[in-house]
Every structure is written in structure tokens, then in C-alpha cells.
Design a protein that fits this description.
The complex is a heterodimer of chains A (225) and B (152). Chain A is 36% helix and 23% strand. A 7-stranded antiparallel sheet of chain A has the order 1-9-2-5-6-8-7, with helices on both faces. Chain A has a two-stranded antiparallel sheet with strand order 3-4. The longest helix of chain A is centred in the C-terminal third of the chain and has 15 residues, at 186-200. Chain A is built from 8 helices and 9 strands. Chain A is of the alpha+beta class and 225 residues long. Chain A is globular. In chain A, a hairpin with a 2-residue loop joins strand 3 and strand 4 (89-92). Chain B is of the alpha+beta class. Chain B has helices at 4-8, 27-32, 36-39, 61-93, 97-111, 129-136, and strands at residues 19-24, 45-51, 54-59, 118-120. In chain B, strands 1-2-3 form a 3-stranded mixed sheet. In chain B, a hairpin with a 2-residue loop joins strand 2 (45-51) and strand 3 (54-59). In chain B, helix 4 packs antiparallel against helix 5. The longest helix of chain B has 33 residues, at 61-93. Classes of the chains: A alpha+beta (225), B alpha+beta (152). Chains A and B meet through helix 3, strand 1, strand 4, strand 6 and helix 5 of A and helix 4, strand 4 and helix 6 of B. Strand 4 of chain A pairs parallel with strand 4 of chain B, so a sheet runs across the interface.
């Protein structure tokens, strides 16, 4: 591969690898809904973001019945478990998580460990609850995705947040025994992936310029330190 | 050595205390009782269902998750104990002061942590000052608003 070929590849990837277009699309949509009340009405309807857990048998009945189609959990599923660890501490107290791994990694025997994202609860009596709800419904935070209140949440819970800042770990065997609360809807799953992608591959435009400048110096004979 | 209450720190929760619940001697007995048989299971209770294919336990989801969570701690304890056992083997081969001290220190590490590190739930979601200011003008009234729970 020539240097020109690699440069061409970099140029093609420029608009793809670190694009935050997907998350901007979510923000534009939510902004266009109106105020907090209208956003709540949209995002909290049936199947807007969450839905009843998608079962393997249900999928099989629809024709997704090959050996590769079998699953117990899907990416983005919301679960309760006391077997997850955050910074070496086991989290107790009926915590909720969203499954970060791709669905294909969640098949029994495929991987030993899985990654979970914490789900924080927003309660009606906590400080700045209204402001927090308003901010989340706009999807302007790059590390926090709004989830509506879930069926078995306490009566004072008014919303949930998938926290992309900080990843928890769990043994896959225990994850498969966790309490599955909801799956993401199709659009909810795409929003979830938009956040995940943005968190992993977000770049300040200055970083691309910085890297470009460093490489140009290298190309003109100045030795990289 | 610190007192147990000091070591426990944030984790003051009661240990898992499962209690015996009802016993169903056949699946038919369980089935005929309908959903009310499950209401017979007391808080933290474990029902027993004896069938032709084996004996099964019935418990609430939250109790099961707590039990499974405690079981995961066994892996952490086993690591600590393996360390003490290795130190004991070294002392058996080389019973000098230095190795005896190593055994004492490794045993103290395990004994000094009778409660494995835990945290109770996740922390609360927080806003930046800018976000607070931006939302302050929103006339949405949380006290009178109805927050719809999505039907599944």
C-alpha cells in the first residue's frame, strides 16, 4: 500500500469514523417536538424508546429461527442485577443497567465477561429534578441518554438516565440470569448506538488538525520525537 | 484491627435471610392453586415444588438477584484465600522470620476485610451550572405534570 493510498483512505474515513451526525439528528428531532411536556408525551409513549423484552421464541415465530438467531439478551436491554462491579465494588440495592455488548456477544458460551452501563434514576423530590428532566429530554448531554420511567420503578421515579461515563463489568453467566426489564425499541436501539459511538469515537476538530500537522511535519523530513 | 461496623462503611444492609415457604407436593397441587399459591410465599420466602422430574425452589426475583450477587463474591474470597495458602506453603518450606511475617500480613489482609467492597446503588444524576441556568426558565411544572409510564 502506497502512502498516497493510505492518505486517500484517511480522507474517505474523515466523515465516517468520528462523525457525530447521528446524535445531532436525535437532538434536532427532540428540539423540534416543542417543550418538555411535548417531549415527554413523545418519548414516553409505547415503543418510543423501550418495549417489552424481545423474546427468542417471539423472534423464532417470525422466522428468525436459525442457530445464529438464538439469544437470551439483546444489546441495550435494561436489567436489574446485584452481580455487576463498578471500580472494584459490587453494586447492591437493586441497581439497573443497560447492556453495552453487541447482541452477538451475549450468546451463552461466546464471551466470559460483559460490559454494562449504569442507569441512574431521577426522582421527583430530588434537587433540580425539573431541570434534569428538561435537559435529558433534549438529548444534549453526550454521556447521558434519557429513558422513560420503567414499569417496576418506585412511584417517585420520574425518569431514568443511561450513563455512558463509566463502564461496569459482569461475568456473562450471571448477566444471563439477571432480571430483564425492557428491551429497546428499534429507534431506541439506534439512539443508544448513536450515544455509544459518540462516546467512544468523539473528536474535537482540533485533534484532527493537530494530528494532520504532526504528520505533515514528519512528511517534510522533521523527525518525530 | 478495625471494628466490623467501621469496616462495613456504607453497606449497612441486612444480610440475605431466606425463610422456608410453602411446599407443594405435586405440580398439579401448585397449578390448581392458581396465582394465589405464590402469595403464600412470605417475604424472603422460598417455596418448594416437588414434582416427578425433581424438586424446584420458587423465590422472588429480588431475592434471587441478591443471592446471585452474594455468590459472585465467592470468587473474590477465593482469590484472597489462595494468597494466604501460598504464603503458608512458603512458610512450611522456609520457616524463617521473614516468611512467617509474610503469612501474618497476608492473613491479616483477608481477616481485616470481612466485608468485601460494595456500594449501595448508583449515584444521582447531576447537571452543570450552565445546564441548570438553561433550564431554569422552563415553565414546565413537575408538581402538576403527569409523567406517563410507557405501556409495554
Amino acid at each position: 500500500m502506497t502512502h498516497a493510498g493510505l492518505a486517500e483512505l484517511e480522507r474517505k474515513l474523515r466523515g465516517l469514523s468520528h462523525s457525530d451526525e447521528a446524535i445531532q439528528e436525535v437532538q434536532r428531532f427532540s428540539h423540534g417536538l416543542g417543550g418538555t411536556k411535548e417531549r415527554l408525551a413523545t418519548w414516553n409513549t409505547a415503543h418510543a424508546i423501550v418495549r417489552r423484552p424481545i423474546e427468542c421464541g417471539q423472534a423464532a415465530a417470525l422466522g428468525f429461527n436459525t442457530a445464529d438467531d438464538a439469544f437470551t439478551l439483546l444489546q441495550g436491554d435494561v436489567v436489574r442485577t446485584e452481580s455487576g462491579f463498578f471500580l472494584g465494588e459490587r453494586v447492591t440495592g437493586r441497581p439497573k443497567y443497560a447492556v453495552l455488548n453487541s447482541s452477538c456477544d451475549l450468546v451463552p458460551g461466546r464471551s466470559s465477561y460483559a460490559a454494562l452501563l449504569r442507569i441512574l434514576e431521577l426522582r421527583s423530590e430530588e434537587e433540580r429534578a425539573k431541570e434534569k428532566l428538561g435537559t435529558l429530554l433534549k438529548f444534549t448531554r453526550r454521556d447521558s441518554m434519557y429513558l422513560p420511567v420503567l414499569p417496576d420503578d418506585d412511584h417517585d421515579v420520574i425518569g431514568n438516565v443511561i450513563q455512558f461515563d463509566g463502564i461496569c463489568q459482569i461475568r456473562s453467566a450471571e448477566l444471563l440470569l439477571s432480571h430483564r426489564l425492557v428491551s429497546l425499541s428499534l429507534v431506541g436501539w439506534r439512539i443508544f448506538a448513536s450515544f455509544a459511538r459518540t462516546v467512544i469515537a468523539r473528536a474535537n476538530p482540533r485533534e484532527a488538525e493537530l494530528r494532520q500537522a504532526v504528520e505533515e511535519i514528519g512528511a517534510h523530513g522533521t523527525k518525530d520525537e | 484491627m478495625p471494628e466490623l461496623s467501621e469496616v462495613k462503611g456504607r453497606t449497612e444492609r441486612e444480610p440475605l435471610a431466606l425463610v422456608a415457604g410453602p411446599v407443594w407436593s405435586s405440580f398439579e397441587q401448585f397449578r390448581k392453586g392458581g396465582s394465589s399459591v405464590l402469595e403464600e410465599i412470605p417475604e424472603h420466602g422460598v417455596g418448594t415444588l416437588r414434582g416427578k422430574t425433581g424438586t424446584f425452589r420458587v423465590m422472588r426475583e429480588d431475592d434471587f438477584q441478591q443471592l446471585l450477587g452474594l455468590a459472585t463474591d465467592i470468587h473474590r474470597l477465593r482469590k484472597g484465600l489462595r494468597f494466604v495458602l501460598q504464603a503458608a506453603k512458603v512458610v512450611a518450606k522456609h520457616p524463617d522470620d521473614e516468611h512467617v511475617q509474610l503469612l501474618i500480613e497476608s492473613a491479616s489482609m483477608v481477616a481485616g476485610s470481612p466485608v468485601l467492597p460494595e456500594r449501595e446503588g448508583h449515584e444521582a444524576f447531576a447537571l452543570t451550572r450552565e445546564e441548570e441556568a438553561e433550564e431554569a426558565a422552563d415553565d414546565f411544572d413537575l408538581k402538576t405534570a403527569e409523567i406517563p409510564r410507557p405501556p409495554l
